[in-house]
Amino acid sequence: MSLPLDSADLAAIWLTLKLASLTTLVLLLIGTPLAWWLAHTRSRLKGPISALVALPLVLPPTVLGFYLLVALGPHGPIGALTQQLGLGTLAFSFSGLVIGSVCYSMPFVVQPIQNAFESIGKRPLEVAATLGASPLDRFFTVALPLARPGIITASVLGFAHTLGEFGVVLMIGGNIPERTRVVSVQIFNHVEAMDYASAHWLAGGVLICSFVILLLLNRRGRLTVMPGARR
Amino acid sequence: MRLPLLFATACCISISHPALAGEVQVAVAANFTAPMQDIAKAFEQDTGHRVIAAFGSTGQLYAQISHGAPFEVFLAADDTTPARAESDGLAVSGSRFTYATGALALWSADAGLISDGAQLLRSGNFEHLAIANPKTAPYGLAATQVMQQLGLTQALAPKLVEGQSIGQTYQFVASGNAEVGFVALSQVSRDGEITSGSAWQVPAALYQPIRQDAVLLNTGADNDAAAALLDYLKGEQAAAVISRYGYGH
Question: Cβ contact (<8 Å) for B164 and A191?
Fold first, then answer.
């Protein structure tokens, strides 16, 4: 028996994995310093920035997708910038999806890392300082290794959450094979075309995959730091 | 004494009123959103019945109907889906009819972009061309037929972006993310005038007629309001609205 997935389905799976991996990487790069800042700052901006990071937890993805579509468009602020840089506009492109996914999955990466940094406390860092470690040293050789479980949780959640992304991609993607047609959109296509058999195969795959990821995470006993429910 | 009397009267009115005036739940194809809102308003005024309308792509609405959504009347964007509803035993046989014939337009939010649409398509002088998903949206299918007739299928393929419904396709073009797109004429014209941007009404010879059929679903078989709405759609008032939005009748 041949696999009941056609080449378009496989392309969608590959694209989804690529999107989730790249998004997680970008989020770790910008989310880690942001989490560090949020964990240690006494700035008045901490409240508003925390709220901003957490927004995708409560906003419907359509709101995020709609504003991204407007912002990325030729008359929007991001669109104006990318056009000036000679990049054109980013809607309907893989880069556009990465930007959307980074916004969408931000809290799932920043919050676990921030929790991990906060739970380390000041003590180990102060001890390292008295032993002559520079601030950069303390960050890389003390804080990061101690925050490792939080960072792993963040990576897994960021990845898993991006796998399940739908609303934002639907709004800014344009359903282009191999560029913006991810698995969730392909499932939607199958359902809309009344091809329920193919929809079942893909949907079942996503279900099992997500379940296994969360199961593995749970076995590490780190699920407690998971932020609120997702849509 | 007065208050209980008033209360009793109010009760009588609120009980007797629904008996006279019914309620009908309609699933409406996205391209027909604006005319349906007008028609529903006129229908409610003329008959006292209430219309509860849900809008979406035809495929999506059909999936909902086949899984027990409580719609009583289905206004599709094509003629095959209502036929399928009938053969699947979801609709009252013999109730199908064409309520409107759709027209396709090539549209841009930029007022100066389109003068001769076919020429613009040949020049390929744009980054993105938005169409509705041809597998699920009849206007998307019509768009692919136009490109095929013009011999541009291959040339335009890399520029295509797909909306899930004709509504989303319109949104891609309206926001400027796609410079041009194939939308329903009804979305961009009123009384024969293009309402914004620039457009080219695609000659009817370039695509198969988009016959939009209505059908009475089994759930509405005994609902007077549903029958009344279908009658109303065949009547003159509805015809006037339908042609005002650029549909054939």
Answer: no
